[in-house]
Amino acid sequence: MMLQAILFDVDGTLVDSNQFHVLAWAEAFHAAGHDLRLADIHAQIGKGADNFVPALLPDVSEAEAKELGEAHKALFARHYSHRLKPFPRAREMLRRCRDAGLKVMLATSASGRELERNLDVLDARGIVDGWTSADDVGHSKPSPDLFKAAARKAGVRPEESLVVGDTPYDIDAATAAGIRTVAVRSGLFDDEVLAGAIAIYDNVADLLARFDDSPLSGRSATGD
């Protein structure tokens, strides 16, 4: 079936933000009396707060999980949001997809407010066709809800779209939605945990450089 849309994850894929989210989460956990290893926090990056907090603190109450999520948002906004930058050639990647006749959607487990900030960082409002955030769905990644919603907003079937993401949770969510994934290593996850993707590239600049031979061209389903 012909490829019609690309659904992009944002944090760690288009915007260099994963390490800042790790630090904000670590501060939020510490303030609440939970000292966690940064590596353990990073291993869960890509999930929304509804799934992120219980993965690290299985016995936490729903109320405390919500408080931790709000604390993370506040800390991130206060200390790290001004340091966000797009990955090299991220905006060009979005435009290249549009030039190829593909619909371009953003799908993030972040809140709508965080997504708005990333749209500004990417200067992408005039390029993308639409977006979905954690505010739009009942459950964040690795639930398939975000990618299902993004495909629906794009007016395409799951099999007519591809996800570009940086975490194993993007792959899990896309697979559950019936969508294939192209992964990038910019989120600092090992290839072993990205193995469910149909192709893996170093970053979006690498993917852009090899666009014509990538799954995004609709002519190939392999990468390296």
UniProtKB/TrEMBL annotation:
It comes from the Bacteria. Signal peptide: none annotated. Keywords: Hydrolase. InterPro entries: HAD-like_hydrolase_sf, HAD-like_sf, HAD-SF_hydro_IA, HAD_sf, PGP-like_dom2. The keyword Amino-acid biosynthesis does not apply. Pfam families: Hydrolase. One of its GO terms (molecular function) is hydrolase activity. Coiled coil: none annotated. This is HAD family hydrolase. The lineage of its organism: Bacteria, Pseudomonadati, Pseudomonadota, Alphaproteobacteria, Sphingomonadales.
